[in-house]
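anyone else get weird line breaks when pasting these?? whatever heres mine. first is seq + tokens for prot A
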Amino acid sequence: MPVRTGDFRGLVNARTGAPIVLRDPLNAGIVNNVIPTSRLSKQAQVFLEFMPQPNTQVGTFNYASTPASAVSKQDNYNARIDHVFSDKDSVSGRYIFNDTYEAGVPFWGHDERNNLGRAQNFASNWTHTFGPSLINEVRGGWHRFSEVEIFGTTNDPAYDIVGKMGLPLVSRLPQEYGPPTITINGPDGAFSMYDLQRQIGPRDRANEIFQFVDSLSWQRNKHFFKFGADIAKRHVTFEQARAPRGSFGFDGTYTGSALADFMLGYVRNASINPAHTSTNLWNWWQSYYMNDDWKVSPRLTLNFGLRYDYFQPYKQADDKFVNIEQNGFIVAGLTNPQTSKYDRALIAPDRNNFAPRVGFAYRPGFSNDMVLRGGYGFYYTPQISNAIFAMAEGAQATAGAAVIGNLTGSPNIFFNDPFSSAVTTGALNFAVSNDQNLRDSYIQQWNFGLQKKLPGNILLDAGYVGTKSTRLIVTIEDLNRPVTLVDPRTPGLPSLNARRPNQAYQRNVRSDKSIGNAIYHGLQVKAERRMARGFTFVTAYTWSKSISGPNDIGGQVGGGNFIGAPQDIYYLQGERSVSGFDVTQRFVQTVLYDLPFFRSTTGVTRFLLSGWQVSTIMTFQSGFPAPVTNNVDTTGTGINSRPDQNGNGNLDGDARTWTKWFNTGAFSQAPFGRYGTSPRTAAFRLPGIINGDFSVNKMFKFSEQRHIVFRTEFFNVTNHYNPDPGTVDRNLRSATFGAVGGGVQGITTRVIQLGAKFVF
């Protein structure tokens, strides 16, 4: 490609097709869109040695990888013992060992992710019968899961790409060899760059739990009481470098072309965190409960219960722990186990988790084959440990930094030494902010349902289900962003860091707060015909909606490809939207039928023509809601704004094409000085699922103990193209904005599979 040598003649805007004339902010000598070879970035040139040359041209795609296969293996061992001491006491024990090696498939040729996971589980049980109405069960156990991850570049000096590029601060550990993460996305389009499938690590981690459970059951008259306790100690370890090879972004701010900025080494933003950290967390969980099943009459049963949970905040074994506390939506002071008023955990304990439950089941007198059921309950959930990991990593990661270049004008961050303006050693540059008053999330669930037996041996199950989630953990990418929105093009505008509300942190501060909530309502209907005369089916339909905000991501855990991040943290009402995982409608139909033909025949006719079975599984599902992205900071806060939305983003079914899946005309870039109006999710709906699978089986029976089953399975029997939702281009600045798979219909995926099984 000519651009590899600095020749950008013919460069156009990816969206409009208008020519782009490169700007030359540092007088590099750009003439007629040609960059002098002497001014090309050495780092960019070395990186491109590992970037494959184009080998095809299909729409906007110019590279196809060679298909590769991977072989995984699994070893599993089980042991169990049971013993009955008397008619009152019995014990049992079980041990399970499992090793699973997952060999990854490379995308670029040398970027596979390989993983060895080991699971060990021990469980024991002692049941003691005090009498015919009083039984106690004690269970104890231990479970441990560990995994070791390596990449294709691990320990391979030929792929020490960041070392060959001469990048500063990068990890020099052989296990962390590999390329940096390069993001090129600007007016000239978005480009896929050679990278690892997982940029963090590689990692070694383990999760371990020791658990003790006691349950006492007591039948007294019409009441069945149950009392119990559940005590567990959890232990989590995690070793990795968060960003050992660094991340570098280029967006065309300086020359008008993101790719030209890359070739010149004009970096828009960069971050690196090469410290190899060791997380070693532990805590105790305590749960106590009581429940009463009261059989009021033969037709009515009531359920009453109460549960109490206490999830102790995690502590770091060696106290290498740090947190930036919060004052509302402003970051405050730095604390550690020696200075925090919450001792070693740094987070306040939440000790008020009382969860009542109530339910009923009623069989009306006018219909003995109908049951009405309903219930309501509270359920508490513990924090995800990822946000707590970050507190341990933040205390140990004292090398590296994150920087953001000038918003306009000339570049001030360069590829050869991007972190020269930052304090990169000894500082807590990666300390995060978890609200010191985080509270455990709780969920209220309620339901009402009807079960009725219909003619034809069909059971109908219909119900309404509702869920309300409160105090959900929400991750805010930068709580130390400037409060005042400005036009970033304003002459003489102070730097982004100079406008941050807490000047003690000259950087963004990733934060978590328990401020999220969600609501779900769903109608669920299922009709099932139990097997009779060789025929059974299950029909299930769900119609639902889930709304949430200000985010669907919490605990610093990735939330998938189709969930937008909040943009304006000071107007959280504007971040409430249809949940990113919402599925409006889902219909599934399964049928299994043993064909009755030739059952009464004998001899060869029966052997060849009887014993046929057909089955189907049909699935129809609405698409997920998705946001439209823009990747432009219109507010001078360092946060990319979403576009403006000026109409319905969805198109009618007959108006959709592979080159225009949604109404691209409904979106435009937000003006400078404010955020965009497009919603966090649900700007439009992604493609759903239409799929039908069909199978035909034939049994050849030789005797009662021996037979052969031949199976013929058709997956996607109608050969309908179901595009991967991730191939829909949602980037307003992209050349294929609104297209599916670059505007080219993909290969349909009907699969026919033959198999045989001999049973003896």
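and prot B, same format (seq, then tokens)
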Amino acid sequence: MTDLMVMRAQRFVNSTYGSRIGMTLEEDGSTGWNTMHALTRALQWELGITALSDNFGPSTLSTLTSKYPVLNRTTVPSKNFCRIIQAALYCKGYKGGNFIVDEEAGMVEPIGYFEGVYSEQVETSVLKLKTEMGVAAAQSGGNLTPKVFKALLTMDAYITVGSGTELTRSVQQWLNGRYIDRRDFFAIPCDGRHSRDVAKALLLAIQYELGMKDGVANGVFGPATRNGLMARPVSEGSLGVWVNLFSAAMILNGRPVTFTRSFGSALADEVMSFQAFVKLPVNGTGDFATWASLLISYGDQNRKGAACDGVTKITAARAAALKADGISVVGRYLTCVNPARLPEKSIQPGELATIASQGLRCFPIYQTVGDDASCFSYALGRAAGYAAMNAAVDHGFRHGTRIYFAVDFDALDNEVTSNILPHFKGIDDSMADAGDHYAIGVYGPRNVCARVAEAGHSTASFVADLCSKYSGNLGYPLPPGWAFDQFVTRTVGSGDGSINIDNCIASGRDLGQNSFDPPRPSGPDTRLGDAFVEALSLDIGKYMESIGFPNDGGLRQYSHQECFDTVVFHDDLITNLSHRHDMRKALIQTTVYWEMRHIGAEDALQDTRVKMYHDGVPGGVRDSSTGIAQITGNAAVRAWNHCISRGYVTGPILALDPENRIYDPENDGDLYDMWKQVKDDREFALRTVALIHLWDADGKPGGNNPQSGESDMRTMALDYTETEVFQILRRYQGYGDEAELHAGRRMGLYHIFEKYNGISRNA
């Protein structure tokens, strides 16, 4: 919404400081960080600071404090300096004093200027700002102090906003009013919403009350803070500031208590409710463990939880050590993207049987490379759902098991909206399409877990509270539907039983599993069962639609059904290639389907240009990708030559070649013969796809590779990891950002094909 006075403030900054501060504003009448940054730079310019910055940091604060410790009508140094204050007040929603209109301008929006006087109206507005911040008692009157000026140049609100509550706002105002004059305490929002800044402010307050000096208190829950709180229990009958701080911590954790300095029975009752919720001893007192659970995501790390997760195989000796330490349920990973680095991260053969026989239970975790928001999307979520279901069946997890899908990075709230929620919608949809055989859980910071659950895409949370510095943990309460709360890393047992774990508190919401089906064998693929063809087609069609490929083909040459029918028609050949080359059918199926779905009018034009070149017609090109698998003549020749030299296949390369000769990619005739074969002979193209995959695994010598080359991979095998599959699919296309993007999307296809291939080979 356009605000006239904000627009005038933006115009003032542009006309007075634009060239001086190195930025101009869009004069749209909408307050935002850009406007506040520009006003901050204008202030720095007026203060004589040469290294201008968007940040109102220590240099700006110290310079302002030394020059103008109090700003008022007698100390404001110039009209423009005062106009910065006026403009900031209007941008913050307060009346900033007089705006003088140039009546001679004769415009619909008259040109004018801020008066540049620290007037009674400015004083009134500054006092109102300080009152809403909670600092008016500490800093009376309409004077503007440096810390309040700093707060004025932020987007922080000092009235209740959105989901904010007056209870939380009362805590925020109290913190500001009591500690604003401490060196490292800066005004926090008073918008009624908890946040990381508010969480840090509360820790600073506790440290100040513990007697820590300025420069020592830092808002970090360290050893001195822990030791101090151990000596500061509060309980029914306690009075004073420590009850204020304790009740504030309860409020910030969403507990319905009154902000008070008197510990009464109502507060004690609510403390017992909180303790029961987080699985602490229920005693109704503010002991250290309760303080810790209120103040830091991991709580009291001297606790012992009944659950754990880890990247180490559970042997009989390790299981005994875990049981002796009070652990009854363990989280183990369905897959591992880098088994060379973490060889035991994924569930090992026979491990689930050991877990069950030793009296433990297990819950499965699905995690890939998910270290930033780009790893999460609706399409990737659908792929993850299929991949997790495949892996769960492979290991023998029975229907009804809850799989925890990991978000193992500090996802900001906007990234949760843009990436994480669509990702879990994709998981949800793929699970539903498969019959909802498995339940969905989420692993991640508190905010991720809470929002995924609120969106209806998970039934329980495995909370990454060990990562206390995550913005998604700071300022967020433990989600209502938590099942496991990860809070400390430690080593259990000794000798053969020694194992490093992340210890977790268990809520009892998920008991894990203690009985399993026989693992699905990792044997050779079989012919696709006729009973599964229709379901496979439906799943692939839905997935391709989710990434922008309509089933009717849209502007592409082939529809979904035509591409799918091509793959199914050649199922016997693909099965034989799989057996011959120890290669999953899904690799070949994915490549052919994907490439065929992408064929468009431009590909037909390129085919014509290749024919022109070899017919001697000007304007032609020597080679291009062609046929159902979009293979170049050069790649086909090099892949065949490589595989013959390695003994993967024997010649001749072309069925009608009487000489059984080696084709030369530099020879136009050889190149064109190969090009025509992959273009016109679909069975030959399919065989070539398999050989290109083998060539890719061997480093793709002579291919279109990055400057550093392609590394040699492990010999093609049926147990290729997700990382290895991704590399094969990426190398088929080439390298670079587009190849990486497409490989990620091809992985979704791969997991769908693999789901039904797995069902078929175990039917």
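btw re prot B: The mean pLDDT is 94. The first strand starts at residue 99 and ends at 101.
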